[in-house]
Amino acid sequence: MQHSVSIRDLSLSFGSVSVLKDLNLDIGEGEFLVLLGSSGCGKSTLLNCIAGLLEPTGGQIFIRDRNVTWEEPKDRGIGMVFQSYALYPQMTVEKNLSFGLKVAGMAKAEIDKRVARAAEILQIGPLLKRKPSALSGGQRQRVAIGRALVRDVDVFLFDEPLSNLDAKLRSELRVEIKRLHQSLKNTMIYVTHDQIEALTLADRIAIMKSGVIQQLADPNTIYNMPRNMFVAGFIGSPSMNFLHGEIVERGGRPAFATNGVDFSLDGYAAGEALQPGRKVVLGVRPEHVKVDEDGAEEAHRATVDIEEPMGADNLLWLKHAGHSMSVRVGGARRFAPGTAVRLSFDMGLASLFDAGTEERI
Ligand SMILES: Nc1ncnc2c1ncn2[C@@H]1O[C@H](COP(=O)(O)OP(=O)(O)OP(=O)(O)O)[C@@H](O)[C@H]1O
Ligand SMILES: [Mg+2]
């Protein structure tokens, strides 16, 4: 398969500080790839290397099999959209869109055609004669996207394009970016620290920590089969519950024991043998904890501590054997604080990690 963007052994240091370390990443033609990670993990640095705004310390970058490592940004066939819209304040929207093309010497008829097309796709036609100061944040960001759109680039690079917008606009524009990708089918590389943006937009997510990709997979795999505890804890809100314990044998089958309480591991698809005595961490998402009100023997009895009704869902905080645990149930299921419930886990959807390496078992 032809890769749209290939990154080979990319390293980047600022002085003695190493930000990216031998990073490898292949992005498919037309793929929507999201770089996700907490602040300072190197997302923008990686994007800026692809864009040609930063020179890597080592390694190479290919766009459509062409080595662009030493090419000027303008020759790479990329368009970049930043968090700060970076529009020319003295120019109208129309001029903001056409300026770059004019400087590049494009014929007026072609410029007009492209501006009209971008305005239609982004629904900014009625705004063309306005200046940026007379636009809302969402409208400004649309114009910023339009500027990349008119250039007819192979690859779009987005660096947190929605983080200056309020929550409602953010979710609206998120849907528009998804629609844009569905209709244009360009390769898009999108940096965010917002897990909802990552899960909703991405074909694949690359989760980064300290300049190293921790897992590269489709959103479903990242959510359900996190490779390590970092990925597991980063994705999901509230976070996955982590219970420290060990593997024990019960009736010839492996079980998970924590604070003297056993839970059968039947249904858990381990990638390797579950040796009794191994110290492990059981990870269970709030929606994979099951609670029943029909009584339980002491060991599996938990108490509802706090209830947080959220409309569609109801979030419970349980206390069990010294642990505090979050549980998501349907909005119609209500539990008064102090209610005793029977606790169990959907092991088929749980994750087991080695307590030492924190890697998935
Ligand atoms: N010009 C620079 N000189 C020195 N260090 C820098 C420079 N630019 C970035 N860094 C450092 O490199 C690391 C990665 O920065 P980067 O901007 O890529 O993070 P990020 O993942 O985009 O974070 P954020 O989500 O906050 O934007 C940070 O620790 C940052 O302090
Ligand atoms: Mg950044």
UniProtKB/TrEMBL annotation:
One GO CC term, this protein: ATP-binding cassette (ABC) transporter complex, substrate-binding subunit-containing
Domain (ABC transporter): residue spans on this chain: 5-235
InterPro entries: AAA+_ATPase (IPR003593), ABC_transporter-like_ATP-bd (IPR003439), ABC_transporter-like_CS (IPR017871), ABC_transpr_MalK-like (IPR015855), ABC_transpr_MalK/UgpC-like (IPR047641), Mo/tungstate-bd_C_term_dom (IPR008995), NA-bd_OB-fold (IPR012340), OB_MalK-like (IPR040582)
Membrane topology recorded in Swiss-Prot or TrEMBL: Peripheral membrane protein
Keywords of this entry: ATP-binding, Nucleotide-binding, Sugar transport, Transport
Molecular functions (GO terms): ABC-type transporter activity; ATP binding; ATP hydrolysis activity
Chief location: membrane
Gene Ontology biological process terms, A to Z: carbohydrate transport
Location within or outside the cell: Cell inner membrane
Keyword Nucleotide-binding: yes
Pfam families: ABC_tran, OB_MalK
PANTHER family the UniProt entry points to: ABC TRANSPORTER ATP-BINDING PROTEIN, MALTODEXTRIN IMPORT ATP-BINDING PROTEIN MSMX
Protein family per UniProt: Belongs to the ABC transporter superfamily.
Protein name as it appears in the record: Multiple sugar transport system ATP-binding protein
Species this chain originates from: Shinella fusca
